[in-house]
């Protein structure tokens, strides 16, 4: 029986996905954490913990190096909430183009019983523009960015994208009418709307700051539905106050931008739809089960992604440093115990590697001895023996 500890609100459909071999509880010795945005950066992980699965996309709340060092596989659920973010960003583009926030405020502050005369006189103050024919720059063309780009094209916009690390899967999704820029500055130049959809990491903090804001078209509208810090809010506030940017919409509030004219803040609800939360939870539950029951690392963000058909009665998995002679040492330790290897696979991601060995037989005591002996190799982070279900 595997123990799964949940953090945040995980959709019921996901919790119901688990088979009877998984128990959802608040155990002190969980095999898995199923999380959303909970901040685990200072968390002390229990020794029992083998995997952390983030239902959703951004995993900047998980200390990847610490997890890897402790042999914990970390996963996310790519694409599970991309449509939800796309729809919110498109709705905000329309809302800003049509001055909906100011128009709503105006219409709500009059106490007259019949305000029709006044509104007919004043309504020109809220004249808007249409998205069709306008130019949108999309920074980051992954699951969210590609969908925003395609939807904007369908609304008649001209779209230019920037993503130097575009995966082939994402590239297939992008309409060929989306133009490619080779720098952020080129992408944002002449754009009426700029939206950012990149992960938060050392390279993307401050990705949009004074230089990029200066390069933007006067009166451009900017969206940050990625993470706090990717857009430099201090620089944006200045650009808003100087009239350079006409509106800024973000999912991540902080005091410096609170209660400011032409800044709209939503409370991190980009992925908060019934559909997206259910997608993430179901995908997350499947990921926990697959990893614990087969060692499958598809969608891991700290281990190489490996999906090896499990065709033998037992599987030994080893998470280790990516250094020479690890496969040799693992094979030797198995041979020392007369364990015959049926199939062996190895792959690396940066400084970490993963080795999967399928064997026909490994009795309990021999297995425990093997685990102890492999754990003595200093570069080994975690060894598991999984019995085929
Ligand atoms: N507001 C929300 O509720 C919400 C919901 C989903 C995702 N997000 C955030 O949005 C981010 C993007 O989500 P996604 O599903 O599209 O992720 P994704 O991994 O599918 O796509 C991210 C894209 O960014 C690109 N990229 C990375 N660094 C870049 C850089 N320096 N310049 C340009 N492009 C760069 C990558 O190549 C990739 O194509 C997530 O990491 C998460 O932080 C927020
Ligand atoms: O990165 C994500 O998937 C989003 O920011 C959603 O976060 P949430 O699961 O906390 O709503």
From TrEMBL:
Spans traversing the lipid bilayer: none
Q: Which domain of life is it from?
A: Bacteria
Mind telling me which PROSITE patterns this protein's record contains? Answer: ACT, D_2_HYDROXYACID_DH_1, D_2_HYDROXYACID_DH_2
Cross-referenced SUPFAM superfamilies, in alphabetical order? ACT-like, Formate/glycerate dehydrogenase catalytic domain-like, NAD(P)-binding Rossmann-fold domains
What chemistry does it catalyse, as a reaction equation?
(2R)-3-phosphoglycerate + NAD(+) = 3-phosphooxypyruvate + NADH + H(+); (R)-2-hydroxyglutarate + NAD(+) = 2-oxoglutarate + NADH + H(+)
Enumerate the GO terms in the molecular function aspect: NAD binding; phosphoglycerate dehydrogenase activity
EC number in record:
1.1.1.399, 1.1.1.95
Keyword terms of this UniProt record: NAD, Oxidoreductase
Provide the ACT domain boundaries. 315-388
Using the UniProt record, name the top-level EC class of this enzyme in a single word: oxidoreductase
Q: Which biological pathway?
A: Amino-acid biosynthesis; L-serine biosynthesis; L-serine from 3-phospho-D-glycerate: step 1/3
Looking up PANTHER family in the UniProt record yields:
FORMATE DEHYDROGENASE 1, HYDROXYPYRUVATE REDUCTASE
Family, according to the entry, reads as follows: Belongs to the D-isomer specific 2-hydroxyacid dehydrogenase family.
Function statement: Catalyzes the reversible oxidation of 3-phospho-D-glycerate to 3-phosphonooxypyruvate, the first step of the phosphorylated L-serine biosynthesis pathway. Also catalyzes the reversible oxidation of 2-hydroxyglutarate to 2-oxoglutarate.
Which named protein is this? D-3-phosphoglycerate dehydrogenase
- Protein species of origin: Companilactobacillus versmoldensis DSM 14857 = KCTC 3814
